[in-house]
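Human: We require from you a protein record containing the residue sequence and its fold in token form, and nothing else.

Assistant:
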Amino acid sequence: MNNTHVLLMDATCYESYIRFPTDVKLLWECCHWVFEKQLFRWCKVVRKKRPRSKYVEQKRRQRDYEKRRRKTYKEGRKRKKALLYLLHKGLIQLQQVLNDAKLPLLNEQERDYLRTIKKVLEQQQFTNPPGQRVKKPHRIIGGNPMQADTGEKRTKCK
């Protein structure tokens, strides 16, 4: 054996945790941040009763949805609709709590996060309105994989 003093090593590295974001995952993360990280915390700080919401029920439904191995398009559409409503309501309630406190409670990073959440809500509400096609530039997450934005008309075969 020649060159026994030489050592060769392979330093291959790869991504160990890859996420595949979907509309439902993104909306759930937004709802979780608005309710758990902000609304409930600020209600406790300003000593105000927590506003009524279906967050706990939706949390259970989201956990059940995530546990399913196969998620149908119909189930995903139902979850998306429920999460859109919950997020919209949560943002309104959070704004009311922040207005009642009359203090700047959010720091700059939290305000940026809140702006992003509002943009996500706006984009998700208007991705595919019934009967219309709307193209949104600079979308935060990919659209419905069942309907590609190719601009072509789709016709049913008879």
About this structure: The two ends are 74 Å apart (CA to CA). The helical segments are 23-45, 55-67, 73-101, 108-125. The CA atoms of residues 46 and 101 lie 6 Å apart. The first helix runs from residue 23 to 45.
